[in-house]
Amino acid sequence: MTRLADRRAVPHLRPVFLAGVRLDAVEDARPADLLRPLLTAESCQHVITANADYLRLAAADPALREVVNSAAMVVPDGMPLVWAAKLSGARVSGRVTGHDLTRALAELSANEGASIFLLGAATSVAQAAAEALKRGYPGARIAGVYSPPDCPYPFPKDEDRRMLEAVNGSGADALLVALGCPKQDLWLGSHRGDLQASIAIGVGGVFDVLAGNLSRAPRWAQATGLEWLYRMAQEPRRLSGRYLLDALFLVRLFAQTGLERLAGRRRGSRP
User: Residue 42: its pLDDT value, please?
Assistant: First the structure.
């Protein structure tokens, strides 16, 4: 489990619980400022980038929910979660995406020397992502790249061992994991005590974007919460069903959060 002392090292975070799942409301902080304190931690600090789909899965799965609620940091990667957190009464300055954290980590690597290991995606994609980071942030240190075979979680024991050995053998200070949700964070949650990197971040499809296989939505779509529509246009077969479930979940979440806040106000107004 993550020690409370490590979480207190990041003063810009305020935890809020949505559907029983913890989310850290970020108040006016640069992504690099969120990561820098964790890079000096003695144990591996697990950072989760949560979107609506992630929250839905964690609300329904006790094992994933335990991983999320005990992580070092859970940032809102998606405007619907920012809106839900604000509806609950939390102060949130905006979302923090896996792309934001990846760029911030590459910046810290280039400027302060932290080395990065990339785990996940296809070999060609991970290699291309590593090269893109080195081009975009001259001086960034890539400690290594490893792409495990595509298989369900939990991984076969031999493969699980190879993944750990690849990361730890590289001496990396930070780990970016692109295995998809919830596999990447279930794996990280089960190996917090084994990983020697100071920080590990689940980043989903970030490697594909860095490699040029997928493109990000325009800024206006990101800011208005319509990034899902742009992504669905790129991968309709994979994402259509998921987004329908997410939409139904969000309707219930907003209703529940609004009612809970209203009930809290009524209790507070009683003499």
Answer: 87
